[in-house]
Design brief:
Length: 504
């Protein structure tokens, strides 16, 4: 589903058994796996599914159509769909299902059965990389994953290297059985079965930078011939490249949102003004970025903090207080929970200053410091309308955080000059403190005003913002993993996942 997949590449495969193979047979290899890409359980005789992608206004664009599956209540579609995946965008998908009861090529002539919607992020961020809407294939059966080309007129065919995502091959389960079938190709379609072997991605991986040799066995021949050894061998080689898509399944993304609570929310001139008819700039930034990230967070619980406010009952100034009001549990349920806590905070605290960033960066860094094994990656979203008051301390905090599994997004709202904040965005010059340079660039700063739609379209403004500020997150995550030598771990099954207390 993504444009940068984990690869099975530079794969050489061939058969060698002169007694079986001769110049007139055309071997063909078929790789099968136990994960279905799309399976619908519908009480119909035959069906077809069409896939659409949608933009900001759900202007649906046709992408793919499956093959027709006849006479089954549980169709397993073989055709795979490859979509370009963009972490920083909300990619809407629609699946339309039809009952095919005629030979017409016009899909509108078929009986429409229904449709379902989701985002590509929901699929990628779901448990085990699978979004189930009455869709599954965990019954031990095999589904075709890849077919090689036919190699003709040779006793030792060498098939072309091919690329396949580990997620498509075994759904991230390194030990899931992968079966390889080899056939003698016939033009009329009556291919002769030569034999098979089973393996797994973990076993395949042992052949990195070398080759694995598998015996191709035919059970029927083995039962009939006492001296039968095998029907040939298949030699495979593999090289792998980890990508954000796959690494993501080995870690839990965590979004931490906070707002600079300065200004008077009761005044229409305030950036925090609670207008009943439209969102203020803070809420727009929270929703724009949060709605994208929450698809990749496993428990949808977001610690949310405010800074720059006097807290009841004694009016003490705080630069890192939970918007939930609960010091023991700063979590909010989903981005909507964060927004609710934000608006509630505006009603209960006295907005004040100054704008100190370092306390909350250090607080999140302390959490990130406890999980440097790749099991969690923290994304801190900071929204502010003022110039940083503790720049020296903030630079030091960023330099320290750059060695941790953590990224920082800073969104400036309002008309203030944010020139000093450009120093934190290390695209050109890496942030430094006391002679130390940040190990990697982890900060992305943007002023929201640069993304505001001139016609006042808030949806478009939010989409522009999210696309830009989130674009660097995948490479930042990959950078941390690679420098630490952390490889993705197989996705956990539903039964293996820790029990989380959810309220959504």
């Amino acid at each position: 589903m993504d444009k940068k997949c984990a690869f099975l590449s530079k794969t050489r495969t061939f058969l060698s058994d002169p007694k079986l193979l001769n110049g007139s047979v055309y071997p063909k290899i078929i790789v099968l796996y136990q994960v279905v890409y799309l399976s619908l359980t519908i009480n119909i005789s035959c069906n077809i599914c069409s896939v659409f992608s949608g933009g900001l206004n759900r202007n649906w664009r046709f992408c793919y159509t499956t093959e027709v599956i006849d006479n089954t209540l549980n169709p397993n579609f073989v055709r795979k769909f490859f979509l370009d995946f963009f972490f920083e965008e909300k990619q809407n998908l629609r699946f339309d299902v039809y009952n095919v009861d005629s030979r017409s090529s016009n899909i509108s002539k078929f009986d429409f059965l229904g449709q379902t919607f989701c985002t590509l992020g929901e699929i990628i961020g779901s448990t085990g990389g699978r979004l189930e809407k009455s869709l599954s294939n965990e019954d031990g059966t095999f589904t075709i994953c890849h077919k090689t080309e036919v190699v003709k007129n040779t006793l030792n065919p060498v098939w072309q290297p091919f690329t396949i995502a580990v997620r498509a091959l075994c759904n991230g389960d390194y030990d899931r059985t992968v079966k390889v079938d080899v056939y003698d190709w016939d033009r009329d379609g009556s291919h002769d079965f030569i034999g098979e072997f089973t393996t797994s991605y973990r076993d395949f991986s042992r052949g990195q930078n070398q080759f694995n040799v598998y015996e191709v066995l035919n059970a029927k021949k083995k039962g009939k011939k006492k001296k039968y050894i095998n029907s040939g061998t298949v030699t495979t080689g593999i090289s792998s490249e980890w990508t954000f898509i796959y690494i993501h399944f080995s870690c839990v993304s965590m979004c931490v949102c906070l707002c600079s609570l300065t200004g008077n929310p009761s005044q229409p001139t305030s950036l925090h003004y609670m207008n009943p008819y439209q969102m203020n700039a803070y809420a727009m930034a929270l929703k724009a970025v949060g709605e994208i990230i929450q698809d990749y967070d496993s428990d949808k619980l977001f610690p949310a903090y405010g800074f720059g406010a006097k807290l009841p009952p004694d009016g003490k100034i705080s630069h890192a207080f939970p918007l939930s009001g609960d010091n023991e549990n700063p979590n909010c349920v989903g981005i909507e929970g964060v927004l609710e806590a934000y608006f509630q905070g505006l009603r209960t605290v006295q907005l004040y200053g100054p704008t100190n960033f370092s306390p909350v960066i250090n607080q999140v860094a302390r959490s990130a410091q406890d999980v440097t094994d790749g099991s969690q990656y923290f994304v801190l979203l900071m929204i502010t309308d003022g110039v940083i008051s503790d720049m020296v301390q903030t630079k030091e905090a960023v330099v320290n955080a750059a060695a941790l599994p953590m990224s920082i997004i800073i969104v400036g709202v309002g008309p203030a000059k944010f020139d000093a904040m450009e120093e934190l965005d290390g695209d050109e010059v890496r942030v430094s403190s006391r002679g130390r340079f940040a190990e990697r660039d982890i900060v992305q700063f943007v002023p929201f005003r640069d993304y505001m739609d001139q016609s006042g379209n808030q949806v478009l403004s939010m989409a522009r913002l999210a696309k830009d500020v989130l674009a660097e997150i995948p490479e930042q995550l990959l950078g941390f993993m690679k420098t630490r030598g952390i490889e993705p771990r197989p996705a956990l099954s539903s039964s293996e996942l820790p029990k989380l207390h959810r309220h959504i």
